[in-house]
Amino acid sequence: MDRTTTFPISLSGFDIEGLIEADAPRLIQLYQGCSDYIVLERGHPPDAAVALEEFRSFPPGRTEADKFVFGLKSATGELVGMLACDRNYPQARSWWIALLLMDPALRGQSVAKTLCAGFFSWLKTQGADRVELAVFAENKAGLRFWEGQGFMLVRTAGPVSIGTKQHSLQVLARAL
């Protein structure tokens, strides 16, 4: 994780910023704004530990060097979106999207779609040829969004416990 790694996006008034653990206090504001998702995920509203966890959790065999957390910053400097991902997971040349959050005021305006398009283009320059992620089975809106980005079901997994909730997961993937 570092601040210098970013990717270009074609969104007027927005920039991508590399985030590090010291940015967790800024990130918690976005988590609070997206509490609908955090409650769906964890069963309770976000707290400071949730934001820190984004920087401290890694898939098996991955380290901090493989983790990237990108913030979508508005013209005022406020974080209005974020994308956390892991390089070369679950296999070489594949990246795992751990989380995409978007301020509710921006949902449905193609901001997340444009953010993902820029991210996918950048991944190609990094040698990636595939992207994978998991969607909670109960997150119907999330599933529709990712399917709209060309992702297809690979398998189901779970149950997985997060916070006070147990989830069945739909693992999705798409080629780049």
Instruction: Report the average pLDDT across residues.
Output: 93
- Cα distance spanning the termini: 23 Å
Order of helices and strands: EHHHEEEHEHEE
Which regions contain 5 or more consecutive residues with pLDDT less than 50? none
Give the number of DSSP strands. Answer: 7
- The coarse overall form would be globular
The fraction of residues in strands falls at 25-35%
Strand order of the largest sheet: 1-2-3-4-5-7-6
Largest sheet: 7 strands, mixed
Residues in helix, %: 25-40%
Helix/strand structural class: alpha+beta
Radius of gyration from the CA trace? 15 Å
Count of helices?
Answer: 5
What topology emerges from the helices and strands here?
Elements lengths: L13 E5 L5 H10 L1 H8 L5 H9 L10 E8 L4 E8 L7 E9 L8 H15 L4 E7 L3 H9 L3 E11 L2 E11 L1
Parallel strand pairs: 4-5
Antiparallel strand pairs: 1-2, 2-3, 3-4, 5-7, 6-7
Helix pairs in contact: 1-3
